[in-house]
Amino acid sequence: MLSLVVNMLASALLMGIAEGGVLEHREERIQHGRPLSDKQEQEDYDHDAFLGDEDAEYFETLDPDESQRRLGIICDKIDKDENGLINLEELQKWIQFVQEREVREDTERQWGERNKGQGEHVSWDSFRKDVYGFIEEGGEGGYNFQPMMDRDSRRWQKADSDGDGKLTKLEFQAFLHPEDSGYMRDIMVIETLEDMDVDKDGSLSLDEYIGDMYKGMPGDNEPDWVTQEREMFAMERDKDGDGFMSFEEVQQWIIPDDFDHSLAEAKHLIVKADVNGDSFLSKEEVLE
Q: Which of 239, 254, 235, 236 is nearest to 195 (CA)?
């Protein structure tokens, strides 16, 4: 019954106790504030809240007894006051810890791959040659990577807070994970609009909004969650009611002001798994 939560907790466990560079260009929206309607999309989102990489797949290969043992360990790690129950604050802190550690570890990994003895900085020229050098050698293989490089160049310049053409490790982290840096918010909105704004008019229509998340075939009946998203567009996304989402409205959608992702995700998970309705998660509820 609680396989979704079990898998999410398992993912987090692997990050904490499992034995143990090429820049990835993510296509998904940031959507820290977006309520997801599709069940599979929500499950993927929940997995990302706990870990965000392939470790969850490894957990699925474990036998049931080992899975239960590891889930018990993760419950004990989250339950800081050792009262046998996981409360909202404990779950939120765990989610936040896992998310921050993932960002740090990814930054450290990619910094090690890209720094190449450059000391405390990585230059754009070095990064460009390392990631996109094959373009200059005529090795694009029929795909035009120039727009991707231009996009990275623009994001690099935004992350380069002192404008010296080089990134410190902290600036490099902002480049890799702009969603976690306040001064990078504008670039995330710009990139989202570029991805979704098919007619390039600088705003999102209802068709563009829906088309980015649902690719139905002609004659198909739309799932209920798509209908809900259409209503959401009209009632909440398009705040001025002009039929389009402006830059500011897109920003409020994907990166809302004062939105605490770890708190929202913790609340969501407790609602999902709290069988007896006491607003806590017992180990039994997680392991059941």
A: 254
